[in-house]
Amino acid sequence: MLLNLVYILIGFAGLFFGGNELVKGASRLAASLGVAKVIIGLTVVAFGTSMPELLVSLQAALGGSSDIAIGNVVGSNIANIGLILGIGGLIALIPIQRGLLVRDIPIMIGVSILVFLMALDGIISQVDGLILVVGLIAFNVGMVAISLRQRNANGNGEPDQQINRLVEVGRFVVGLVVLLVGANLLVSGAVAIARELNVSELVIGITLVAIGTSLPELVTSIVAALKKHEELLMGNVVGSNIFNILGILGITALVRPIPVSTSLTTIDLPIMLGFAVVIVLFAALGRLPRWGAAILLAGYVAFIIWTVTNSTPAA
Description:
By secondary structure, the protein is mostly helical. 83% of the residues lie in helices and 3% in strands. It contains eleven helices and four strands.
């Protein structure tokens, strides 16, 4: 037990450090190319902060722990909204740009509904995975096109000539390697502890693993709020949730089909969709007020408590 806890702690540290370096490198590379901040949040930062989820889910699926693979994604999407927006919104008022309201948040809700429908037959198949990955490619192509159009239209997002691209590529690669090691240790330790405590891997995936893989998003969001870059915050969360579904589930299902338990389709996936829909209410206000952030955080805490207290022993 103690050794597995050490594995988990080292894994968390690896995800934290590796995710931070990967995001920093990717963001600075994007800035050196003149990509607008909100687009960086929706694509580059969202992709970078979702790498822990991708690596953990792939590692879990290849190791036969499919419940951790999908539970990690569902739990991370819920944590992104409830935990990360909740904490970030308590630190600073988070503006919600019109583009997010009319385009990106509806996409997030749409892909959440899509994966729920795909899961109803009890499996995310390789065909489902292919559809999701094609959707991810289309989304990112669209974001790049929007970024280029905005840059040409208003002249914003000039390339930062002071950034050393070679250094940032090295930072990105180091971060990715550390993430790989951290993901492997985290999954190994989490699976072992779940078996020792007779707790289902799904619960471990939705709670412990999901929170651990969401650490990069949490750190990025807190730093963005403290440094008054609130415009990155909502884009990071929305883009990350889109990538989690289209990219992580898509790529993982392409590698190996993911069985889906009944509790996911009847409880956890609807809750994930519910958190996504709630964002629309705040988006209509043009910002996430602190009282709204408090509601999101309280809802997430309630979800975790309910999940742990109502978990069934592992089979």
